[in-house]
Specification:
By secondary structure, the chain is α/β, with parallel strands linked by helices. The chain is 43% helix and 18% strand. Strands 6-5-7-8-16-15-14-10 form an eight-stranded mixed sheet, with helices on both faces. A seven-stranded mixed sheet has the order 19-18-20-21-26-25-24, with helices on both faces. Strands 1-2-3 form a three-stranded antiparallel sheet, with helices on one face. A hairpin with a 2-residue loop joins β22 and β23. α3 packs antiparallel against α10 and α7 packs antiparallel against α10. The longest helix is centred in the N-terminal third of the chain and has 29 residues. The chain is globular and about 90 Å long. The relative contact order is 0.08.
Amino acid sequence: MKPFKSLSEKIKDKELKYSLKLPLYFCGSLLIAISFFKRFCIYSANSQGYYIYFIAGCIMYIFIGINPVKFSFPVFVRAFVLFLSAPMALLMPFHLGIGIFILSIYIMCGSLIQTGKYLYTLGVSISIIALLFLIIYHISPSMHASKLLLRTMQVAIAVFGIRSTVSSNFLMFIFNGETYKFAISYEQSGAWIFLIIFLTGIIYILASFNIKVRNIIKYCAFSLAYFVLRYAVLLFIYTYEKNISVFFSSAYTLFSWLPYCLCAPAFILHSNESLAIKEYEINLDINSCAALLSSFSVLIFIFYAYSSSGIKKDGAVYIDEYHSPDWETVYQKLDRENYGGQKSTYSLMKMLEKQYKVSVINRSNQYDRLTPSDVLIIKTPTIKFNANEIAQIDTFIKSGGGVLLIGDHTDLLNMDTHLNAIANNYGINFNFDSVYELDTGNLVTYSIKNQPILHTVSKMTGNYEFATACSLKSTINTAKIMTTGNTAAELQDLSHQSYFGDLSLSEEEYFGLFDACIAKKIGKGRIIAYADSTTFSSFSMHMSNNPEFIFSCTEYLRHMNILTWNYVYAISALLLVVPLVIIAIKQLSIRQTMIWLIITAYIIPFSLCLINTSSMLSKTVASKLSEIPAVYFLSGSEKQINHFINTPNSHDEYSSLFIAFQRMGLFPRESDDVLKCIETRALQFIIVLNPAQVSNLQKSLLISYVAHGGTVVIGSAQFMDNEFINFLSAFDIKYYEEQSALGIQSIGNEQLLINYINKTPISQNFVYSQKSLQYADIRVDFFQPNAGKVFVVHGIEMLSNLALGDPMYTPTQKQVEMHNELYRMFVFILGNL
């Protein structure tokens, strides 16, 4: 009770203005920490409240920094700029991992230049929050289970008279007649947010004038006790609520930590409380400028040595087929004669052959062909690697080679086990699980908006949709390409098909941040580990940003590191002698040196953003993709376009219509951005399957595209509604529509109800039509408005999976005949381009 008595005495002594600042300080730290986690981590699916929490936390900090007696407008402005600049630096586009190093210097030291009264401690604190969050963001994807916390919670709930047992990483106990099995993790306990609040409190204590060890001990003991008690209470709340969100929702997080924020200051208050620190002056002299330039040159060298594009290689791309005989093969051609079901849906080789020399490894001794200029792709191995092969791969990487490891969910067919025999040598591990969205149970979508530090590959790829990925674990010196937020991981279940669980969050599962794609530099070479083989299947490869991702990975691996880290350390140490010599000769004070190093920390991030050489890779990828003739399916939203691309109520994401274009030798793409479609130099035509999803802006761009000689293919259903008629009229296309009899047509084993509608073109720019011959009620009308061409495909629903068959399986004979009808229709279109 003594700390609380101290607080009472302060209030009686009219020192309330200082006593209330510490609770505000803790609460501000809590709100800003929640805002970061809500924006980037487990709350990212519903991040609208990010700004509310962030602004509220900043306001609390600002009021701490303002003297309530003598309000100074310049101080208010300086405080506001300070509290916005450090956290917002999280959005700066750094690449290849060096961003963490540079940005840490920026946010840790940057606030020191703001030396107004009452601002020193607060500025450092909010900067430390941002720094801690970056560290947590980097390490937490590989840190979920906690053995220490597991044993601690077993003791904690024993205090309540409940017996428990520990099995592996799970805590099991019986309560109210039910058995519970909790995956004790850092995210579930709220450890990461607690760490931020706790350490900002430590920073305050260390920055105070009157530091007492006794106060620090009391503060630490109270903090740890509250942390354990809070988690135990949440465990019991879950047993009543049966809602896993009690461990991560913003409301539970806020209100469960508020008592700590209000009570913790009582354990560190002492007499003569003040947030003030004496003000410094900045002296601009030649000596300080010399220190500035010296420190700047050191960091520039480190940046270039680590973050440059590297030396481009011109070797071949090798695909290991030998170790994956039970998976999709690269030999089966994806054409109009060979369907073959799943064995014909792997077209990685076909895509890469458009730009690179590609070879296949189908015997173990062919690893001898690899040179440091080559790239090796190891996809979903179903047989293990022997010691000699692993040694050859290791030598290949360290001498400058690039390796892409492609795994999949739940250690299917032991492929992740075999990959780990290689990856574990470099601190990388494929986990035996499958990841999914925390709140919906759907497949994971990666967004660059939710990754504060971007790798070169993720910058070139942009947003990304996973299919069935596992998670990756890696060491701290691994670069993050794609880290998914708002994600949960379901452990493999050997009793279910493909080892999937129920993909719904329970107390037995981990959630938070998970790595799905990472990169690491090893000697002169590079390695990328990727956790979702579905990307490289033909029913997925050409969708969304998958081609950008595939070419980005390949181009990144086709570069050799300029310097190894040993050289970086040696030369950096040599360069650091320069500022030390200048300081010794010119007798700079430590204050002057620190001030200019701080200014350097402000200048470096903005300078390096301008001179980052990794942009050359992005231009190379864009150039390679633009050279490939493409057929674009236009969607009107971020989701895939209706059932012609997406198959509702099915585990298969993409349709046979999409794959049919690949069978014709075309390069199909999907995008909701008309400009992206039009800007492709080798574009063949744009397909609009659902005009209702096309916005007015997109429609105007399409009209302009046709007017300048472009080609558009429009899908028409049996009935033309007013919206569709208006869409066609924008291209000066008109129809007379008359309904005919109804009929039943059998295709395969399915019965289809067909509305026969006679559509007669009455436009002056109509050229002629082409009808299907036998199995489908399809007609293609050819119009030529202005310099461009428009094709209208009637009966487009006949080209859905219902008629063409599922893309993952071998079609029946009737479905093959339907495919042939489709080919005849589009041969007519291609012949008129």
